[in-house]
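Issue 218. Parser rejects a valid record. Input:
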Amino acid sequence: MSRKKRILSGMRPTGPLHLGNLLGALANWVKLQDEYECFYFIADWHALTSDYENTALIERYRKEIMIDWLSTGLTPEKSTLFVQSEIKEHAELYLILGMITPVSWLERNPTYKEQIAQISNKDLSNFGFLGYPILQAADIIMYKPYGVPVGVDQAPHVEITREIARRFNYLYGDVFPEPKVILTETPKILGMDRRKMSKSYDNAIFLSDTPEQISTKVSQMITDPQRARRSDPGNPDVCNVFDFHKWYTPAAEAKEIDRDCRSAQIGCVECKKKMALNLSKALEPIREKRAYYEAHPHQVDEIMADGCGRARKTARSTMESVRAAIKI
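Output the parser choked on:
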């Protein structure tokens, strides 16, 4: 039997996970477990690049994210689940790669330019923010993966990693394979206010929300902006609530809602109630698993420790070859 190809991906612990995280990444990660040897990590050092002034919550969020991962179907039997800062080899490789990466590569990073322009409430003029693609490259190539599953907007990040790996190999010999971009479909998940769902926008529905919280949040969601009265026909094609019906409501029922909305036979209030009920029902298995892991915190700690041990073993092997290559 041939060995599965390895892939790697990670998330920053900046708060509890929401539906955007589930539909945009986690659901796909769970599926990939059956096809690949998966390494998934909590990128807590990356959280410092922008949240360096408030680090008190990072440890709590690390555990919260691990519980979310386990609750949605990631499993230590199929994946190596670990914490970035527990593997000190990442910092060593980050330093070495920083010595060979031209500053111009970092400055042309589209995410760097975009966030410098858009984020005005934080001082991002630190080296860590400029150099985070180098740390990201170290995170990835440390495990010599076949590929990295990303959405199309994240593909440039993997390309920078490929360039850095290529430069290292040119200077010191072939140590790192160049990871491939594994493009995945990542639907754009809008929050209650029709902006991208985000913790920072306070418009997210979290995986840990109770049915009551879900009902309250869904009732606040913006629907068809042109539908002013109950008697007006609606347009599900521009309605954020109906997008969630597509994901969480049985197809036959969603088809009826589409038809009734267009003919004004159903109002937005009733439509939202139906969606909230179906969404809450779909998330019930996640809530049940979450309740189990919250009641067994030591089991979560053991899973994290085991994953870190497995990742550390691989990282140490990689760094032995790196040190031999650079002759230090």
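Fixed in the parser; the record now loads. The first helix runs from residue 19 to 32.
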